Amino acid sequence: MQEKLSIHGAWSNRWVFVMAATGSAVGLGNIWKFPYITGENGGGAFVLVYLVCILMVGIPIMVSEVLIGRRGRQSPINSMKDLAVESGLSPRWSLAGWVGALAGVMIFSFYSVVAGWVLYYVAGMANGDFIDIGSEMAGKRFEVLLADAETLLIWHSVFVVMVMTVVAGGVSKGLERATRIMMPALFVLLFILLAYSMTSGAFGQGFDFLFHFDPSQLTWNAVLIALGHSFFTLSLGMGSIMAYGSYMPKKASIGSTVMMIAVLDTLVALVAGLAIFPIVFANQLDPGAGPGLMFITLPVAFGQMPGGHIFGFLFFVLIAVAAWTSAISLMEPAAAWIVEKFGIKRVPACTALGALVWLLGIACLGSFNFMSDYKIGSMTFFDLMDFATANIMLPLGGLFIAIFAGWKIKRYALEDELSFKQNFWFSAWYFSIRYIAPVAVAAIFALNLYNKFT
Ligand code: PHE
Ligand code: NA
Fold first, then answer.
1. Contact (Cβ atoms closer than 8 angstroms) between residue 297 and residue 276
2. Architecture of domain 14-453 in CATH?
3. Is residue 356 within 8 Å of residue 338, measured between CB atoms?
4. How far apart, in whole angstroms, are the C-alpha atoms of residue 365 and residue 152?
5. Which among 138, 155, 280, 329 could bridge 285 via Cys, Cβ 3.0 to 4.6 Å?
6. 330 Cβ closer than 6 Å to some ligand 1 atom
7. pLDDT tens digits, one per residue of 242-293
8. Could you tell me if the CB of 235 is within 6 A of ligand 1?
């Protein structure tokens, strides 16, 4: 019997799936966001909660997403719908796919602004602008950039076009080709930076900050942020991994590929933290500096290194690439759905989506200048896009997916799709997805709401 495939195409082999999904996972979430939210939330205790969330919630949900995608072989919205109907449930389960596609567009809008900062730094490094820069000047320079809406708009636009171009190329000629080139290089450069950081003098202090467990630093809000980040960093709860799973070969084992992706993503985040915090402490910078952390610490480090501007240039290129491969996966679920729904080609579908993201992105970049006084609650538009997606929509999407996979899909279908060699792994996954993951997400939500109103 011919294997059922997606109309959008398929990965050449399972390694391409691993690389593409790792490309989706490893991005600004690891190198930019993880260090700065760890810094804002006090370090070690936050990191521990984050690691527990990855293991107990993130990994089981990632398995479910790949499984649903591969069985549905369509965009997340339609895969969820068909699997629901096939299991005798309401087609309204596709709502989870809808929330996801929307979250993808929202994340993309602020992600693109940050990726734009990265591109600006690529240009600056190429220009030699950061040679010998001290921490004070580096901070100043970042501040000036944020105030300059025009420059931000240029780089944001460049990034949206870069992503649109790849997604418009389709699964093989766009997504697969882009993934194959840059992923290996990213890892090499990250370890070189780590080596530099180890010699910078304050490595021990940075290490301590990341791994010293001080529970007094922990609040329920920080736990919510750690949970949300575990979804964000693994690209879960919104359909990216589900869409990529729908292009995965049937023979490949889901369990082991997912483990590989999660381990790589976690390693990159920890290495990024180990690279950034020693520089923070060696230069008396503030670990709680917020979104600017990476943009201030890295130029300082590269500015002092012999030949650092070449290094810095390469490194920001690679962060840009990591952001690029992630943003591609942010766009793919909605793009695939538009193609299925309206029967149009990828190019018009991606152009329309890109235009939407571009507009939303303008409000995000304006949050740092012409719209900085415009607040929702205490949040700027940029903050709101980040908070609403990472801390609400992704965990909620994940909760739906866990309930769907754990309680709604028939057990034999799950066993068939997962084909774990040992019963133990199936049972472990099944227990996590039915009980641990949904209870953890629901409990953390409930506790935060409770704290808000008391
Ligand atoms: N996982 C990506 C990162 O860490 C961000 C992302 C989130 C990508 C959700 C796709 C979906 O940067
Ligand atoms: Na990530």
1. yes
2. Up-down Bundle (1.20)
3. no
4. 7
5. 280
6. yes
7. 999 999 988 889 999 999 999 999 999 998 898 888 888 888 888 888 899 9
8. yes
